[in-house]
């Protein structure tokens, strides 16, 4: 199975721990689940978890950054999607 995770879900896992974190970590540990990302999605993930408003420690940011880089599968889509309703969602639709 292949999954694409929205940034809001990742943020919930990073800042709240508990269930969102357990679900994402479970997904990463499953051999039959590939968490797909594009470079644009990875850049967004890393930029968002570094935002000062979340107050994350450098160690927490580094742990999640390493996990994301090591355990997600980077793809390079060959198409673009214009999603006028919410242009920020377009990279996730392309990845899916």
Give the helix/strand layout.
Layout lengths: L1 E2 L3 H10 L1 H12 L4 E4 L1 H11 L8 H14 L1 E2 L15 H6 L1
Parallel strand pairs: 1-2, 2-3
Radius of gyration: 13 Å
Helix-strand makeup class: mainly alpha
State the total count of DSSP E strands. 3
3D shape: globular
How much of the sequence lies in strands comes to 5-15%
Order of helices and strands: EHHEHHEH
Largest sheet: 3 strands, parallel
| End-to-end Cα distance | 12 Å
Classify the oligomer. single chain
Helix percent reads 55-70%
Distinct helical segment count: 5
What report would you give on this structure?
The structure is a single chain. The protein is mainly alpha-helical. It has one domain (2-95). Helices cover 55% and strands 8% of the residues. The chain has five helices and three strands. Strands 1-2-3 form a three-stranded parallel sheet. Helix 3 (39-49) packs antiparallel against helix 4 (58-71). The longest helix is centred in the last third of the chain and has 14 residues, at 58-71. The protein is globular and about 35 Å long.
């Amino acid at each position: 199975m292949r999954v694409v995770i929205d940034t809001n879900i990742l943020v919930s896992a990073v800042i709240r721990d508990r269930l969102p974190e357990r679900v994402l970590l479970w997904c990463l540990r499953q051999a039959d689940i590939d968490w797909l990302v594009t470079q644009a999605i990875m850049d967004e993930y890393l930029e968002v978890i570094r935002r000062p408003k979340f107050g994350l420690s450098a160690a927490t940011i580094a742990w999640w950054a390493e996990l994301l880089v090591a355990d997600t599968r980077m793809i390079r889509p060959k198409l673009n999607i214009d999603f006028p309703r919410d242009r920020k969602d377009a990279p996730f639709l392309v990845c899916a």
